[in-house]
Amino acid sequence: MNLKKITLGLFFLGSMLTAQKQAVEYVNPFIGTSNYGATNPGAIAPRGMASVSPFNVAGPQNLPHEKDSRWLSNPYVHQNTFLTGFTHVNLSGVGCPDLGVVITMPTTGAVETNHLNYGTTYTDEKATAGYYSVNLSKYNVKAEATASTRVGVTRYTFPAGKSNILLNLGLGLTNEQGGMVKMVAPDEIEGFRNVGSFCYNSPEQAYPVYFVAKFSKPAEEFAIWNKPYKYEGVEAQWMGYNGKTRIMKGYTREVVGDSIGAYVTYNFDKQTQVEVKIGVSYVSIENARQNLEKEVGDMSFDQVYDKTKNEWNKALSTIEVEGGTEDEKTVFYTALYHTQIHPNTLNDYNGEYPEIGTGKIGKTSGTRFTVFSLWDTYRNYHQLMSLLYPDQQLNMVNSMLQMYDENGWLPKWELNSTETFTMVGDPASVVISDTYLRGIKGFDVDKAYEAMLKGANQIENNPLRPGLEEYIKNGYVSVDSKIGGPVSTTQEYNISDYAIAQFAKALGKKEDYKTYYKRSLSYRKLFDKEFELLRPKYSNGEWYKPFDPNKGANFEKNVGYIEGNAWQYAFMNPHDIKGNIKLVGSNKKFVTQLDNIFEKGQFDMANEPDIAYPFLYNYCKGYEYKAQNRVHELIAEYFTNKPAGLPGNDDTGTMSAWVIYAMMGIYPVTPAAPMYTITTPVFDKVTIHLDENYYDNSTLVIEKQGNDGIISEVKLEGKNIRSFFIDHDELTSSGKMEIILK
Amino acid sequence: MNLKKITLGLFFLGSMLTAQKQAVEYVNPFIGTSNYGATNPGAIAPRGMASVSPFNVAGPQNLPHEKDSRWLSNPYVHQNTFLTGFTHVNLSGVGCPDLGVVITMPTTGAVETNHLNYGTTYTDEKATAGYYSVNLSKYNVKAEATASTRVGVTRYTFPAGKSNILLNLGLGLTNEQGGMVKMVAPDEIEGFRNVGSFCYNSPEQAYPVYFVAKFSKPAEEFAIWNKPYKYEGVEAQWMGYNGKTRIMKGYTREVVGDSIGAYVTYNFDKQTQVEVKIGVSYVSIENARQNLEKEVGDMSFDQVYDKTKNEWNKALSTIEVEGGTEDEKTVFYTALYHTQIHPNTLNDYNGEYPEIGTGKIGKTSGTRFTVFSLWDTYRNYHQLMSLLYPDQQLNMVNSMLQMYDENGWLPKWELNSTETFTMVGDPASVVISDTYLRGIKGFDVDKAYEAMLKGANQIENNPLRPGLEEYIKNGYVSVDSKIGGPVSTTQEYNISDYAIAQFAKALGKKEDYKTYYKRSLSYRKLFDKEFELLRPKYSNGEWYKPFDPNKGANFEKNVGYIEGNAWQYAFMNPHDIKGNIKLVGSNKKFVTQLDNIFEKGQFDMANEPDIAYPFLYNYCKGYEYKAQNRVHELIAEYFTNKPAGLPGNDDTGTMSAWVIYAMMGIYPVTPAAPMYTITTPVFDKVTIHLDENYYDNSTLVIEKQGNDGIISEVKLEGKNIRSFFIDHDELTSSGKMEIILK
After folding, report:
1. How is the beta sheet containing A151-158 ordered, strand by strand?
2. What ipTM score was computed for the predicted complex, to two decimals?
3. Which residue ranges does the record assign to the Glycosyl hydrolase family domain (chains A, B) (predicted)?
4. What is the pLDDT of residue B13?
């Protein structure tokens, strides 16, 4: 008789009886899988390099959300119906297609290698953090997926009969082509697949993702397939095989091509499960193999899932919430889940990773993070990470500084050690400054400052700040510079300069502080009183005309702005809201302008420039209730427990960070100013478990008192603060903030 | 003062003074590089895996002998003018395009990666065994090439200025596409290039040739280029780079594709030489690296060439000739050189090689040979190897038996461990039997016999002998079998069965001897008295009609025959010439038929079926003079010291073996009958140095006495043999044969 087992049994029984749902159980990975949220319901570990997503965006059956017929940035769309496999590296919530490759697919009967023929409809999709399953209608196969950090694991339950598992290296979401595949043994395949040219940029930086796939049962037969391009020359007349797929049975050497794959086949006399473990790496096949062996080894599918589920639960339990509906909790924890996907791990188990720009393999003792969509994330995401996961945030800053060491520049939109140069501005400085000002200082501060100044000042060959010369000289980037979105770019440089100013101030560099602070206010030169908006200007100082401030909504191209129009950029000066109000004239006029934006459909919840707008009412005394109302209306309208429950691209967690803050009742309006503005929490009580290595307190509670009405009082440790703003330090070093409604 | 140097100097001086030209100096690698000889003038070591050939068959400048505009099987055509690089693996004297890849090209100035743009005219070509050089007009660069067994070495002499060396993995002679390239260091590139689908067959067996390239000077800059296929989808509209070549500077990871390459660049302040060593392997990149290091290592270009030249001289000095013109000696030694190219070494330095059909890597302690064009070579080539290089011939037989061990069948037309199934018949049995009967017995005789019988008897799934069932039942393959060339196929099976019979007899298996000997005569059933020729037959015994015996010359397709017509196959029954004569009716009628064939243009010197015809006069007493005359006329007409100095494809040395025998005055008419028939030698004296491990005598002399007239007497060790036939054993165990003319 085993006493330990009994005790353990009683413990679990006890847990079930008390039965508060764990944080992890509130994750609904289907949120954001429609309405261009661009998330996927696949299985992933926190900040995983590998993930396993169902792939249902190929083939005319999936029109109009079909990958080749439009700009589509996700491997999965919830309303689609035709599944052609399971991808093993994926991006989540981004706006451009990439990754979505290394595709497995179980089938039965005769082998078919063309996804248009082997694809299938499906039923019974289930997804939770670290797990996804589906039944494939055509084959009566149940497919399940889980993942560790660098290994995607699938389990296929086949009926009796001939069963196949395909590894398709042709099909993929990325627009890059080409790969290599090699059968190492009847239970092991290795190779790589090219990815890259994110947002159709920098194709010369395209790079391989390496993999090693292990099957729990050795193949009875295996083959490589290869469909070369159709030969057009005279010689085609002698090629009986021209344009046809080659099936290379038992082939064991490398095969390269754009339409290649491997399959293993079995003959089962009864229902049988096969597990497939795919280790990935951006360094080498050998590292992919080591990642697989060290991280997963002989663990079963269930063991991997258990471990990953626990990791998720631990990560998500950083915040506990009370009150709110089940749906609200689901929205909240799913958002938190979505913030733990990118930036993700780039380094292998052994610490190796591809350096940026050098062609060398680097080695890190910490985590090398990748996927820095900084134009998005500098606004709120990293602030949230500093609060909830300061160790991760520190690692992210250190990763950015490694990049500076490697290629001489801080990142702009980094993806797997390629600089995609997507979007505008110089956002890394903002993130680093903000992190420091929130008390997370364990990085090389001198190097960080040097890197910031280089981006802010190097006139020639500066990849981060095109147009810098005239920006410094005139205070703005002009229309005739031909630089896309000169107004937006000016504003972004202002925000970055403000962050540098604050960093300089903290480091005691007073002159620098003055210089950059002054630079940060130059957007004002673009304020046109006629429109009471920022307006594009020529380098000679004349206004750009004809000027239509409405032009540019919904990503329409326009002169002046990037992904937005004059309304959506009007108040994107978060470091100078008071100054902005002065430009407009008065609090009242400012509030009227804000109201107009919301009420006349100029507010875009789906894109970053204006996402702080609802909180700006807090800068106008007496109008704070409008912030409270707007924020709650926006949460209710755009953030729901449905596949369409994100307003648009999650932007690697930026939208999710917005709703997490909004639901907690605080928001970090000004990057590189360590404070929050306050609105009504959704929950009655929010308990944040702070990391004691970075914060004095281990807990921060935000408690709502009263359920209706507007905020009448905010108390910190029982004392009314008489403000709708609270410093980060003050908040975190207090145990509790009460938000009292009446 | 260095005594050794002086001694050495005196030695060389002495050599020069006595100044008999060495055998190696009589090699003219340009012979066969025009008129579809399909040889190339590139540098190669005896039986080398690697070779470095100039590549001048790409680009419209080379029309009509341009690789994409016709069936062209060689990397080089003598009359072409536009050179686009140097290939590092090549086939010689074959009829189908393959290999001709891993191309280096020196250029100067701005880098151009498109061969149509970087190609150049050239002057001052020089070639000898193991060495080739040329001046590239556009660049004023001298390019030189040499090779060891598995390493191609080039040396480029650049003028001062910007210099580049390209490694083009897109361009090639093979119709296969695709490869991989990776810069390992500024002086090292590794990768592979796909080859295969020889004769447009078996594309699913296409395979990589691996390489490692080392540069004597590290690149100052390097890049990979990749020109992906043009994207046709909707997304192409966002790809500014669509269809353009990508230059990936400093890129250090694997790049795969159909149009890829790497280049290194230098800036030289004065004329500078760069040496490039490229090790190849059919097993792996690691083996290619080891081949390079172990075979060449730090040796200079000159050292490699010296070593290879010595190896060639040693191999060619197996025969010494006296008399004859310089041109005749050149034709002779170049032919001997051409017999030492294929079959070539397949195994790496460490003994590893790709097995045939298993997907595994095998290991051999001897040499694993490859490129067995057995339909050609069974007729005379292996007989010559048994005489001159018995150790090589034994290794070839053992290689064939390894193949049987690996995939269960003897080879038919094996190329780099793929069975191309080119041509018809079951020729390996003939080669093995003939080898044994010539006294070379150091192989597993029981296994060889088992392998032969399997090919001769297995009815189902027999890849060597399609149509075997009706062949055994009816004695011939019928027109309605739909098997290509049923008459030719029947004859080939007869020849193989004859060889098996002789082998059985030698092994004391009398019943088997009777069975197979009887089978070997079944071609007689196809003899049609109406035409006095062999004629295709239906399975019901009726003759195929309408029958045009002339149809099928010059490779025209026809019913009945493969690569030939009824005339060219009429007497391809070398094991039953006496019986054949009886069928025709009389010696006189036979001679008349032979004369008709020669005089009416039905004889084809360029293809194998009828190449023994000129010797057949020897079977008709009193007409032997006709053999002597025909043979000398054919030598004079078809074998000259000119690029067009081969009658057509060398067929991996078969044509060369023909002329070597013909010039020595002996010819092995009947495969698997160890004897020679005798005609007039070209040379006054031929001295063959026999291998004492296989032969009792160390020397065999064939001496011609008298220069005009016909053979009046043949003496062996001074004794008139009163015959135009001599046994192999008798000849080799005698010291000398005198052929006396008057």
Report:
1. A122-128, A131-136, A141-147, A151-158, A272-281, A207-215, A188-195, A179-185, A255-257
2. 0.91
3. 287-741
4. 44
Tell me which residues of chain A, numbers 67 to 106, contact chain B at a CB-CB cutoff of 8 Å: 68-71, 97
Q: Are residues A351 and A307 in the same domain?
A: no
Structure-model confidence comparison of residues A708 and B10, the more confident one = A708
- Collapse the DSSP code of B341 into the 3-class scheme (helix H, G, I; strand E, B; otherwise coil) and give the result: coil
Task: Please check whether residue B2 lies inside any domain of the structure.
Answer: no
Last residue of a domain, which of A251, A285, A313? A313
The structural domain count of chain B equals 2
Q: Are residues A549 and A457 in the same domain?
A: yes
Residues A269 and A366 occupy one common structural domain: no
Does the N-terminal peptide bond of residue B41 adopt cis geometry, omega within 30 degrees of 0?
no
Summarize pLDDT for A384-432 with one digit per residue, the tens: 999 999 999 999 999 999 999 999 999 999 999 999 988 899 999 999 9
Torsion, CA A698, CA A702, CA A705, CA A706, rounded to 10: -140
Same domain, A191 and A330: no
Given a contact cutoff of 8 angstroms between Cβ atoms, the answer to whether A56 and A63 are in contact is no
Whether B117 maps to a domain, the answer reads yes
The answer to whether residue B10 sits within a structural domain is: no
pLDDT per residue as tens digits for the range B59-110: 999 999 999 999 999 999 999 999 999 999 999 999 999 999 999 999 999 9
Q: Does A408 touch chain B (CB under 8 A)?
A: no
The per-residue pLDDT for B708 is: 84
Over residues B312-319, mean pLDDT: 98
Residue of A nearest to B284 (CA): A253
Q: Tell me which residue in A70, A180, A231 faces B256 most closely, judged by beta carbons.
A: A180
Domain assignment present for residue B187? The answer is yes
Cβ pair A208:B253 closer than 8 A? yes
Q: How confident is the model at residue B232 (pLDDT cuts 50, 70, 90)?
A: confident
At A475-528, the pLDDT tens digits run 999 999 999 999 999 999 999 999 999 999 999 999 999 999 999 999 999 999
Query: A307 is in which domain, residue-wise?
Result: 28-313
CB contact under 8 A, B70 and A234: yes
Indicate whether B250 and B353 sit together in one domain.
no
Q: CA of A353, closest CA in chain B: separation in Å? A: 12
Cα–Cα–Cα angle for B315, B320, B325, rounded to 5 degrees: 120
- CATH number of the domain residue B371 falls in: 1.20.1610.10
Q: Write the CATH number for B105.
A: 2.70.98.10
Residue B256 forms contact with A (CB below 8 Å): yes
Domain match, B625 and B573 both: yes
SS3 B409: coil
CB interface of B with A, residues 572-611, below 8 Å? none
- Among candidate residues B313, B336, B367, the one where a domain is terminated: B313
Q: Rounded to the nearest 5 degrees, what angle is found at the Cα of B638, between the Cα atoms of B633 and B644?
A: 155
- Mean pLDDT over residues B403-414, rounded? 97
Contact residues, chain A, for B200 at CB < 8 Å: 235, 238-241
Q: Which residues are paired to B152 by β-bridges?
A: B147, B278
Residues 207-246 of A with CB under 8 A from B: 207-208, 228-229, 231, 233-235, 238-241, 246
Chain A residue with Cα closest to B201: A239
Query: Who's near B311: CB < 8 A, 6+ residues apart?
Result: B45, B46, B130
Helix-, strand-, coil-residue percentages of chain A, each rounded to 5:
35, 25, 45
Whether residue B200 lies within 8 A of chain A, CB to CB, comes out as yes
CB contact under 8 A, A175 and B235: yes
Q: Do residue B344 and residue B473 come from a single domain?
A: yes
A 10 A CB-CB count for A17 gives: 7
> Phi and psi for B681 in degrees, rounded to 5?
-70, 155
Q: Are residues B327 and B309 in the same domain?
A: no
Coil/strand/helix, residue B69: coil
A521 Cβ contact list (under 8 Å, min separation 6) = A494, A576, A579
